[in-house]
Write a structure and sequence with these properties.
By secondary structure, this protein is mainly α. Helices cover about 75% and strands about 0% of the residues.
Length: about 650
Amino acid sequence: MRNYIHVISLLVVNAKVQDHISAFVLLNLVVNMLRVLAKLHICKLTRESHGYHHCCCSLLCCFRTVSSLTDPVERIPFEKLETIDYHSIKFHQLRQILQECTSAGDLLSGMSVHTHLVKLNINGSIMIWNKLLSLYLKFGDIHYAHQLFDTMPQRDVVTFNTIISASVRDDYDAFELLHLFSKMKKEDVKPNHITFSALIGACNGLIALRLREVFHAHTVHCGLSSNAFVGSSLVDGYAKQMRLEDAIRAFGEIIELDLVSWNILIDGCVRNNCKEHAMRMFLQMLKGNVRFDGFTLTSIIKTCSKPGDLKHGMQLHGCAIKLDLAHETPIHNSLITMYSKCEKGMESPLKIFGNISEPNIISWTAMISGFVQNEQSEEAHGFYKEMLRSGVRENDFSLSSILPVYGNLAKLDQGKQIHARVIKSWFGLDLSVNNALIDMYSKCGSLEDAHLVFMKMEKHDVVSCTTMIMSYGQHGKGKEALEILSEMESEGLVPDGVTFLGCLYACSHGGLVEEGVRVFKTMTEVHKLNPKQEHFACVVDMLGRAGRLNEAESFIDEMGIESDVLVWEALLGACRLHGEMELGEKSAQKIMELRPEGHGPYILLANIYAERGSWEDKEVLREKLVSHGLKKQLGCSWVPLERMPC
């Protein structure tokens, strides 16, 4: 063992390395030799003859490769190299060797070929260099691949496509890809459809979104916008930007539409919440005699997301069975989600889940989300435990789905256990998981933990800030909620309607009437957002809680929302709080007219009569409640009787 190491040291010391590429090759060879030596020593100790023989052969190969580096380059003068013809160098053999090395994953032999190329100063046959570049990229060394790319004697469109595609996979910045594209243009290498499809697909960052339009213009100039590869990349990119009209326009430029193009457009329509247009595209695809596949069905099933879509979803389920696609796990997963949203209860999703031969993490997550949506938190918790017992590990989606369970059940201890699993699994950096943690801690009453999670997040999004604002609102901390709104705007985040609803709620429960009125004006006048009935109800509730009942009534009249039952319910609740009988009677009467099947106004008005001592009026109202066939729902309370271990 020591003799081998001594020989390796002598070889390295005596190696005549001319450039950084050869030095890198030599370093990798030495590392491999040391690994082989370690295995050789183990095989010798365990007397494993086959492994010992294999290690000896590998070591011999390493010595031969290193020896090629130690031989002086002067043995083959450059003058003689220039006279060597194409066939004597046998480029085709080198290409074949590199292809075999790439297929077999043999980096060592490929590096040996690279050494000979550098040593002999071979500049011909660009195909050899391209295959060598592909070899290094297969082993994931993108940095060294870029070094090789920069030192290559010549480059063609295959070279640029290879390095651009690899850079896209490695999440290189879009502007670095633009630099490669500019270098390509300077070297007068004409880009093709593969070049543009890779570049367009890489424009996903906020700053790089405009680059997609630049590349789109180049495709039009080069006459490639009608290519299926390029067109599909444009459709997908614009759809992800929520620019469906541009996506449809790019789709229309494609001359020869294939199944992939249709699938991307349909999925883009679903992503942009244009379900009707997605169905129209699906029907148009069928009229064009294009046979759909499992991906098509998976996307189109997502259009069924409410009870009224159940019949349509069942028809799509029948199509999957008829075309023998129902056995595919992605279709099973989409069907689970569809039935969970469109059908009351989880009977159908459970049957579908039972038919999956090998459920994946998406299958389990769909079931957990279905239980949560159907307000079956206990069942969701049990399904989560079953998932862990089956050996399936959580991902960010499953963790985001299971955390609301413990908020709904107010199980703080179990929620903290899930938080511990989040930290151990490194999903603590995920935005959706952190947002779910904030919501869970808030619903469990631990506002300090919710605030701690929020402060430790590396970055926030609109959902993060909105969740934290709602948390403060639930605990009556209006000032803190408004501070989050200010921080949100300073970070460049644009609040939406839900954000302002949370702020109004926080101001209402925190007694910040003037601030709440300013928030409402900011929403309507600055951000030009149209208020919904929930916003109006929050303003009425805010004014009513502060005892400004007449202003609340005037607000209803000014906004022209007399037919909105929510605002009258908010006003009736405020009248109940302050014992205002006359306005309470008017509010209750409005609610009875707008929602005659509800028992709420009878109960609240009866309580107002009772507090004012009008027992006869209360009795009359009770009799009226019974005569209309209405009944007050019984309240209930619950406490956990045993621990729920995860």
